[in-house]
Amino acid sequence: MGILNGKRLLITGVLTDASLAYSAARLAQIEGAEIVLTGAGRGLRLTERTARKLPEPPEVLELDVTRPSHFERVREALDAKWGGLDGALHAIGFAPQVCLGGDFMAARWEDVSQALEVSSYSLKALAEATVPLMPNGGSLVGLDFDASVAWPVYDWMGVAKAALESVARYLARDLGPSNIRVNLVAAGPVRTMAARSIPGFEAFEDAWVRRSPLGWDVTNPEAVAKACVMLLSDWLPLTTGEIVHVDGGYHAMGA
Length: 255
Ligand code: NAP
Hints:
Elements (H helix, E strand, L loop, with lengths): L7 E4 L8 H11 L3 E6 L4 H8 L7 E4 L5 H15 L4 E4 L18 H22 L7 E7 L10 H21 L4 E8 L5 H4 L4 H11 L10 H11 L10 E4 L9
Parallel strand pairs: 1-2, 1-4, 2-3, 4-5, 5-6, 6-7
């Protein structure tokens, strides 16, 4: 018996087998969940290939979070397949290159608005599409990078994560009465496609390995996956609006 036995989950953000969502999807299956993945744009084919590496290759639906019609189709497909849903993982982030790298003033609103739409607003859009499938309650989990401070190079992605944290709290407020929990996992740095696209990302990696009291391995997403699975399970039934740090303890240390 796994802790996700009988759960039907939608998992976004599986691009490669290095994706945080891939480890979460793998562990979710091992813990007994049935899952459906989503992929976007040119990455969709890659998501389909990566899906075949999972213990039980799942169905992959197309979902570009900037396309409202995709959300509608995903909701219909899940309704037809399962007639309901128990939870969803939001593992989606994107910012145009100019939004990252240390020149905070360089980005224009067109760039920033893309980062916010894809990385922050999309949690609300995902909730809108999935909540009607959860009449008996459920769990929404998102992936965060601690947005309580300004980081080197992270720039507008940091602003987008601050917005994501706030979106999660408002969703927790409004969906709590429907017994739907909304929580984030604030992960330490892990080498994924998204992480590689951040110029200067290595600086995070070095700092994390040095400062985390529990230690940190930038190549190991397993602890992040475990937290996602725990939050998607019934084992934290009265936890919502929470940000669970899975960062080796980095956030709690002084310089
Ligand atoms: P990843 O494997 O590159 O996953 C990022 C995902 O976002 C990809 O599947 C990507 O798909 C998807 N995405 C981008 N634009 C999209 C759109 N318009 N519609 C739908 N999906 C879109 O990297 P990851 O590091 O695992 O990222 C997953 C989440 O974890 C992100 O929210 C990220 O900010 C967060 N996180 C990562 C770290 C880290 O160090 N890696 C730390 C803390 C939090 P396409 O490429 O096909 O568009």
